[in-house]
Each structure stands twice: as C-alpha cells, then as structure tokens.
Amino acid sequence: MFPHGTADWMFLACFALIFYAYAGYWLLLRLLAQRRAVQAAAWEPTVSVVMAARNEGQHLAAKLANLAELDYPAHLLQVVVVSDGSTDSTAEVLSRHPGVEAVLLPESGGKALALNQGVRRATGELLLMLDVRQQLDRDALRRLLPPLADPAVGAVSGELLLEETNGVPSGEALGIYWKIEKAVRRMESESGSVVGVTGAIYLMRRLLYQPLPAGLVLDDVLVPMQVARRGYRVLFQPAAVARDRIFAEPGKEFRRKVRTLTGNLQLVQLAPWLLSLRNPLLFRFVSHKLLRLLVPFLLVAMLVTSAVSRNPVMHVLLVLQIVFFALAAAGTVAPGLRRWRLIAIPTTFIMLNVAAAMAFYKFLTRESVWH
User: Fold this and answer.
1) Residue 253 counted as domain residue
2) Residue 23 has what DSSP assignment?
3) Contact 84, 56 (CB under 8 A)
4) Three-state SS for 123?
5) Are residues 239 and 281 in the same domain?
6) Are 69 and 210 in a shared domain?
7) Which residue in 323, 359, 296 sits closest to 18, CA to CA?
8) Which domain does 307 fall in, by range?
9) How many other C-beta atoms are found inside a 10 Å radius of the C-beta of residue 311?
10) If phi over 0 gives left and psi between -120 and 50 gives alpha, with beta otherwise, what is residue 335?
C-alpha cells in the first residue's frame, strides 16, 4: 500500500511543494481567485522614460532610435538616461542626442541608485521604466496606458518576448518556462496584483516611486511591491511588448538566473516587511517567488527518501528520478540534444534549480552579483 512509512510521506510532501511552486499556485489562482475589473480608458499624460545604462554604448543609439519611433506625441515624452559610471562610449552616444536628459555619474553605484537619480530628473506624470538592450514594439506605450486611467491602478507591466537571432520566438524549454511564468502573471493581474513586473518595460505613477536601497538587484520586484503596499494594483499587459534575444554566449543565461534568484533572497534582507502582514501580497510573494528557491533542496530530499524507503513503488520512483537527472545531464553535456523536449525540459528544470542552489551559496557567502 502506498504510502506506508515516514519516508514515503516526506517524499509526497516534497513532491507536493514542488508541484505547487511550478503549477499548483497557478491552478489555485485559476480556480479560486475572483477577477477584478479595470476601468481602462484612452488618455495621453506626460511620460518620462527612465533608463540606467552601464557600458551600454553598443546598444544605446539603437534604443534611443527605437524610442523616437514610439507611437506617442514627442512633446509629451521625456527621455532620461543615467550613465552609471560607464567607461565605454555611452557618454559619447548621449552627447549626440541633445534632446535626451543625460545624467553622467562619475562612478558606478549600481542600477538602483542610478534609477533614483533618473527619477529625480523626471517630470512626467508617469514613469516608463526600461532597460537599454531590448527593443519596444511601436505601440508598446499605448498598450500600457489605458489601465492607468483607473485611479486604483499604480503600475502596469509589459511583456518580454525572447527570440532567436533570426527573430523567431524561442521554442526552447526556457521559452516554455517563460510561458508558465506569464500564465501566472496573467492570473495574478486579473485577480489583483502581480508580485513582479518585467524590468525591460513597465509604466507607473511617478508619485508612487520610492527611492531604492543601494545594491538592490530586483528593482522590478521591490518597486511593484512598494506600489501594492500603498494600496494600488499592479497589472500585467502582455500586449505591450519588449523584444530580446536568447543569450547565445554559453553560461550567460545561467549567470543571469543566479543573479535573479540571489536577488529574491536579498529582497527579504533589504525589505523584511515583505515577509510580514504589512505586505498585502504576502501569500503571492511566498508562493510565486520564495518557494522556488527551496526546490533544489526538496529534490535532494525526494532522492533520499525514495532511496531509503522499503516501498517497491518508491524504488520505481527513484529510478524515474535518476532517469530524469540523466536526461538533464545529457542535455548539459550535449546541447544539441535539447532540440528534443524530452531532453530540453529536464535540462532547463535542473539548470534553474542548480541556479537556485548557487543563489543560496552566493547570498550566504556575500559573493557579489549586484553589478
């Protein structure tokens, strides 16, 4: 009979938590959360684009050209670019664009402090927060604006589309991960607020911006959480699109993920109120952001409990786990095998959880990932 021992129950508990972290939370929102209406309307407020740039000379000219093509009146759009101690051609590029409000910081203090400086120069009613590398669709700003006509809405996130070098949407397992993530964000948005925005594109009320602490990694999580704390909704608008390329450089996507996951741990340290009842999105924050950090340890516990169990069913599950890890190892050693989903999905899943384990290590050892 299954289960029939402590190890079996521990295995089931670990499996249930992993399932909840990646799929169960979304199912719970879909089944139980009530959809909340938004009083959207067309309007044209003043908007300040704020970007922090650290040695982005190779991308900055293209981004400024992209902003000039947005479907929005130029006299209502202010562009503020903060060079965070750049040592490349960033300042030179900015000097060729006199219409841009350039802030040249002599030394790098990190993205958070650069954004604080940029917002101080902003004059628009709304802030359009962007990263330099991604390109916006021409109608992206128009798509973000209507929900903010509702006085209950404080910020709206756009969507980041990851593409191959030929511009085709990614079909890799990482793309599948992003699809799951976006499905969760849609349900959070429809029923209340998302717990994080897309750092590459989000729009917010300038008066709701609060200065960010030095060294902060995840401004795209803390900023919307601060907005929600003040009683406003934070929505997700997938029709407002920023486009980026999948990292071709080996290991770069992994390093980016480690940095992001370490940032989740740093958030709790810098803003402990996130784990208190002062956070109106506490349940969502734990379910969406924190539980996934525990998954690598739960995977190890599943291996151990299935190995020590005397239940023959658990032994079958142990073999299946070993096969799953073997497929992931094959996809890591031979990246070409990832064209098959049977290889790609285990490889990406294990990559994400190795990144989570590395995040714990870097956080505990204070190894820098902030810049």
Assistant:
1) no
2) I
3) no
4) coil
5) no
6) yes
7) 296
8) 1-32+259-371
9) 17
10) alpha
Q: Alpha carbon 128 to chain centroid distance?
A: 17
Going by DSSP bridges, is the β-strand pair 101-105/47-53 parallel, antiparallel, or unpaired? unpaired
Plot region of 208 (φ>0 → left; ψ -120 to 50 → alpha; else → beta): alpha
Task: Looking at the structure, tell me whether residues 266 and 235 fall in a common domain.
Answer: no
What is the phi/psi pair of residue 152, to 5°? -85, -10
Tokens of 343: 């290889």
70, 136 contact by CB (below 8 A): yes
Give a yes or no: residue 252 inside a domain.
Answer: no
Rounded to whole angstroms, the Cα distance separating 186 from 239 reads: 12
Going across the sheet that includes 233-245, the strands are 101-105, 77-84, 47-53, 126-130, 201-205, 153-163, 233-245, 135-136
Q: Is 303 exposed, middle or buried (0-12, 13-18, 19+ CB in 10 A)?
A: middle
Cβ burial of 202 (10 Å; 0-12, 13-18, 19+) is: buried
At 63, list the tokens.
Answer: 């981004």
Q: Considering the entire predicted model, what is its pTM?
A: 0.89
Kindly give the confidence (pLDDT) of every residue in the chain, 371 residues in length, as a single tens digit, with 9 standing for 90 and above. Answer: 456 789 999 999 999 999 999 989 999 998 888 899 999 999 999 999 999 999 999 999 999 999 999 999 999 999 999 999 999 999 999 999 999 999 999 999 999 999 999 999 999 999 999 999 999 999 999 999 999 999 999 999 999 987 765 555 554 545 567 778 888 999 999 999 999 999 999 999 999 999 999 999 999 999 999 999 999 999 999 999 999 876 555 567 788 889 889 999 999 999 999 999 999 999 999 999 999 999 999 999 999 999 999 999 999 999 999 999 999 999 999 988 888 889 988 998 999 999 999 999 988 887 654 44
**Angle at the Cα of 345 (from 342 to 347), degrees rounded to 5?**
100
* Statement to judge: residues 88 and 234 lie in one domain: yes
